Amino acid sequence: MACPRPQSWCLGHTDFWPGGHYSGRGGKRGARLGLGRRCSLRSSSPGSAGLLAFSQAQLRSLTHGTEEETENVSLLPGGPVVRGPAMLVTAYIAFVVLLASCLGLELSRCRAKPSGRACSNPSFVRFQLDFYQVYFLALAADWLQAPYLYKLYQHYHFLEGQIAILYVCGLASTVLFGLVASSLVDWLGRKKSCVLFSLTYSLCCLTKLSRDYFVLLVGRALGGLSTALLFSAFEAWYIHEHVERHDFPAEWIPATFARAAFWNHVLAVVAGVAAEAVACWMGLGPVAPFVAAIPLLALAGALALHNWGENYDRQRAFSRTCAGGLRCLLSDRRVLLLGTIQALFESVIFIFVFLWTPVLDPHGAPLGIIFSSFMAASLLGSSLYRIATSKRYHLQPVHLVSLAVLIVVFSLFMLTFSTSPGQESPVESFIAFLLIELACGLYFPSMSFLRRKVIPETEQAGVLNWFRVPLHLLACLGLLVLHDSDRKTGTRNMFSICSAVMVMALLAVVGLFTVVRHDAELRVPSPTGEPYAPEL
Q1: Which of 264, 270, 269, 256 shows the shortest CA–CA distance to 535?
Q2: For residue 212, what pLDDT is reported?
Q3: Which end of the chain is more exposed for a tag (fewer CB within 10 A), N or C?
């Protein structure tokens, strides 16, 4: 039975991946729908009838290849195209160059780093190691799943509209559980919450073994809960243990999280390579990284259960938290502008996370290496942030937020041209994506600094709850309207819309700069007063 046109589910031939390129693996009589239905082989668009009528045998005759050779053929708008090595070579060269740049900057920073009291305190270093071994395993398991999430849904023959709904479900569950995560963690206990994270995330990974759409939706909901726990329970446990149980100076806390932020980037780079290894080099397929993450999660939960003590905190009513955050948001123009910038910028980043795979994958991109290159670019941006705010250059975080927004605006304009239907340029798109990740490396530490200075500590949880609502709402709306039209046209239009959104963010940055340009509180202190992050 043919699918009705308004649903935008039916893209044609059964042997096509969602998004139009040839899978090379026949066998299923139609594109799989979340409700168990399948589209017919008839195209609902007269203009695409010729393209959708190709069979595997006709495709091989057009390319004069064998059945095995058609594995590397993409049916792009210009016709059958044999995947060349350009994207593959570009990805590996970019990865090596970015990695070498990051390594050089970090080595120079280490040579110039002063010694500190924390480094010479064996009890503190031992306490850090107890925290890091659990936290880093959790982060590694999280990053390991990122490169092949979209590809896995494609592998199960879901269409892009269905995949977008899966992403929206994940975003919605993240914001829903994020609103109550702090209260849940305080009530349940931080250690138990970390163990719960390992259990829920393991279940989320197991759902990826199913091809059932509703099971995958449940998995996305579990992933949202796990993400909320990952970014609340671990940090809360550490801060309580650091101050209350071990009585270390509170000034040493930033040193721990500065080191954790650096190694988080390193783990993301390594996870991308590992995902590429298990999925492609070992030939285990796109579900392999999700299976490989389960032992890491189990080990993290076991170590937390065995080595960590339990701690609780006094709960604050959720309504009171949100009310206090709203009062702070409306009473301080700086907070309102920061929230506007965050909502606009990070909603565009969420859409980028969805779009990069369907833009690059049809051109033979090694997804794991591409992801590692993205994370290396982000790490490079973080290193440039430290250099820019150093005593030598002494740029301020508000300047770097402005620069990050400008870079993203430029990159999105590049993408509107490099994804033009029939004139796709994957290498240019890849460069634009790298620039977006570089901008993220500048943006996130700058925004973190500004939030700490502008938002009172007692109101941060409530204010961040109000920030998350428009952020995720914009991202969800963007994903839902993305594939209202033809895939390629829809992708290009989405980048155009994102460009307009980032121009609005740029206007908000100009407004913030006007308000705070004489505010000494928002200036980076002298580097001599910065906490020392000990080597591990």
Answers
A1: 256
A2: 95
A3: N
What would the two tokens of residue 283 be? 């030939």
Looking at residue 75, its amino acid is L
d(CA 451, CA 462) in angstroms, rounded, equals 13
Question: Cα dihedral angle (521, 523, 528, 532), rounded to 10 degrees?
Answer: 90
Beta-carbon contacts of 3 under 8 Å, excluding residues fewer than 6 positions away, are 9, 10, 33, 37, 39, 40, 44
What's the rounded Cα separation, in Å, for the pair 92 and 279? 17
* Nearest of 345, 287, 5 to residue 161 by alpha carbon: 5
Distance CA 121, CA 35 (A): 59
Q: Give the pairing type, strands 73-76 and 79-82.
A: antiparallel
pLDDT at 360: 92
What's the chain's length in residues?
536
Q: What is the pTM of this model?
A: 0.79
- Phi and psi, residue 80, nearest 5°: -65, 130
Residues 6+ apart with CB under 8 A from 164: 354, 479, 480, 482, 483
DSSP three-state, residue 82: strand
What's the first-to-final CA gap in the chain, in angstroms? 62
Tokens of 324: 């206090």
Task: Please spell the DSSP secondary structure of 4-42, one letter per residue.
Answer: PGGG----S-TTBPTTS-B-S----SS-B-TTS-B--SS
Q: What angle do CA 144, 149, 154 make, to 5 degrees?
A: 145
303-307: long-range contacts (C-beta < 8 A, 24 or more apart)?
A: 303/133, 303/134, 303/137, 304/134, 304/191, 304/194, 304/195, 304/198, 305/191, 305/195, 307/130, 307/134
Alpha helices in 67-159 (DSSP H): 86-111, 122-144, 149-155
Q: What is the pLDDT of residue 483?
A: 54
Going by C-beta distance under 8 Å and a sequence separation of 6 or more, which residues neighbour residue 24?
Answer: 15, 70, 71, 72, 73
Residue-level pLDDT at 234? 92
Contact predicate 174/228, CB 8 Å: yes
CA 60 to chain centre: 38
pLDDT of amino acid 315: 61
- Using only C-alpha atoms, the chain has a radius of gyration, in whole angstroms, of 24
Burial of 32 (0-12, 13-18, 19+ CB in 10 A): buried
Low-confidence ranges of the chain (pLDDT < 50): 1-83, 528-536
Neighbours of 47 (CB within 10 A): 8
pLDDT for 76: 37
d(CA 97, CA 434): 12
Q: What digits encode the pLDDT tens for the residues 413-429?
A: 999 999 888 888 999 99
Q: Rounded mean pLDDT of the chain?
A: 78
Token pair listed for 502: 């980032």
Q: Measured between alpha carbons, how far is 138 from 148 in angstroms, rounded to an integer?
A: 18
